[in-house]
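Hi again,

Forgot to attach this to my earlier email, sorry! This is the prediction with guanosine-5'-triphosphate bound. I've pasted everything inline since the attachment limit keeps bouncing my files.
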Amino acid sequence: MSDIKKIRRCISCGEVLQVENPQEPGFTTTQALQKHVIVLCEQCFAKQNQGHDVLNEPIFNEDFRVILEKARVTKSLIVYLVDLFSYETSFMSEVAEAIRNNPLIVVANKFDILPEKANEEKILEAVKRRAEDADLHPLEYIVASSTKNYKTEEVLKAITKYRGGRNVYIIGAVGSGKSALVNSLLKIYKNPTNFYISTSIYPNTTLEVIEIPLDSRTAMYDTPGLSISNSMIGYFSDEKEVIRTLVPRERIVPRQIIIGTKEVLVFGGVALLEVVNGIRSSYYCYFSNEVKIHRTTSDRAEGFMKSLIRKQQTKPISKKITSSKDFDLYEINVDYGGNREFIDISIAGLGWISFKDRQQTIRIYVPKGVSIYHGLAKL
Ligand SMILES: Nc1nc2c(ncn2[C@@H]2O[C@H](COP(=O)(O)OP(=O)(O)OP(=O)(O)O)[C@@H](O)[C@H]2O)c(=O)[nH]1
Ligand SMILES: [Mg+2]
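Structure tokens for the complex follow:
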């Protein structure tokens, strides 16, 4: 009689899982093997769960260091643009370090895509908390919308107030709306040249520094975006259809789904949220309205997602994701005091999921290298 046994591997590094020797690759505990269908070896688990919340900081481009060095020696004003859709995961410690001595304004852009109920004060508080975490200390924060010209006059006023006759550098992640902001400012200036800068939903639109003279001596500089290699937008940058689905172009309508222990939310073919343990409660998803959301159970999740992809029954679908082997896996033990505060789990480039803290254990599956972040709810 022959006997067929399934060999289990670490979901991240692919090593065969073993419980005998902690010094050897693939080590895990018997308990983890019994409790979970999908398991990370102890080494990968430690790597993915160590340190701060923002994992996989994006790569800091050396050319950008040269731009920031110019801004530093000329004591220029920095306008740091953050995309309200993904600001938590778009800060870089090297940038904070490089602009430490420059006057700084933080503009939280794309306010128009947040749901109706979004409270500007509360958003401002959340952005402040995150910026301070990243060691940024701006003179002013402004919540704005470049394409709707919301508060762009205030941005211009703040620039005039703080630049002190010096240059201005507009910096921020790829796609945060830097060029759109500059165009909006040009309109207020009654720009006589009719020159506007190209903008687009696809990453890396501006590839060189663009100089816009402010007077005979000084200029405003629109810069290429900071890397978003840790975001889905970076990960799927060569798949236009995926980007078109992920980037919200209209106001987000939150979607509420109730799930409990051993249930899974499937987000298109690009991410999963699994409640490993937790009483049934509402999960509110803030994604582009085009992203499809499905519900299934833990034991069926893998087959269910594969079938959605094979039958093209979901959106977005990427050529790069065919099974859970293409994901990084994170486990979050939610415990913000258990007093049922709303908390957010953000997935860079996809959006965020908001729910009440009921001391759940949650697993998030995202394309390899994509950052997640969790903290108190921003809305
Ligand atoms: N809804 C909304 N979309 C915006 C806003 N600002 C910019 N966008 C859109 O976001 C996309 C990116 O804008 P860009 O101005 O090209 O962004 P960028 O920061 O210059 O991008 P790179 O040059 O690639 O670094 C475009 O499709 C813009 O129309 C905004 O306030 N609201
Ligand atoms: Mg640009």
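Residues 50-54 have pLDDT under 50 and may be disordered. The chain has three domains: 1-50, 62-230, 250-376.

That should be everything now.

G.
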